[in-house]
Amino acid sequence: MTLLSCNDPAAAERWCALVRARGETLGFVPTMGALHEGHLTLVRRALRENRHACVSVFVNPLQFDDARDFERYPRDLAADARLLAAAGASMLFTGELRQFFPAAQGGAVPCRDPGPDAQGLEGEFRPGHFAGVATIVARLFELVRPTRAYFGAKDYQQCRVVLHLARELGFPQVVVCPTSRDPDGLARSSRNQLLSPAERQRALALSRGLFAAHDAWRAGERDAARLEAVLAAELAREAVQVEYAEVRDPERFALRPSGALPRARALIAARVGRVRLIDNLDLAAEDPA
Ligand code: PAF
Fold this sequence. Notes:
single chain; 289 residues; alpha/beta; Rossmann fold; 2 domains; three-stranded antiparallel sheet; 10 helices; binds pantoate
């Protein structure tokens, strides 16, 4: 399939409507570009489960609490288009903020409530971030009206926010796909390309911390504080600036747990030099990879 590429969300909306009118299924992968193997895994899954894969590339200013972080975010639309064409995606679209929220609708950005799971963790360290994510994802869903939408579990809290949004909207089916990792364990992220080789080595502390907590869980450790101590100990071995390293019960995600846990997801955010990275792991999973 030839990749159709457009820089007008309204044109993308029309193409998606045509596809749906033909009764064809549409898998949607929303991205901020600088695509890597993790994104392509989502695209390939979308293509296995739908007739078409549609990908948006938009570095959404609404979800950045730090203007420098927004400026520095990697962008390479030509490379993204080449990767998507090779992967067999049907449509790539991009646009400007004003095109997503055009003057015809008053030009105002209707801010979305990201729901209860936006509290704490990323919500604490990046105020307004999830409102920005929920606002653009709701708009993208309205434009594309996909059969299914695909997100990576690396952004675990974001996945919870999106699942809440999809429940509120009544569509689409949201598919959360496993975190894609480099062979040495580092979670794939567009931000990794901003790391120097030495910083990339230090960044491995995040996945090492998570895998160490997974080992502790398998050895029978269930206490939230002691699992968090395992994360902290591993992170302390490297020069990384930890923002949070916490364990949560996914069934009671908004609460900071104490005592023994029946299930656990460990979540970390840390700065390595100027680059902010996040990662997480289901500690009870059989295969943590
Ligand atoms: O995960 C991302 O890349 C972004 O947060 C998303 C979902 C594309 C919304 O801007």
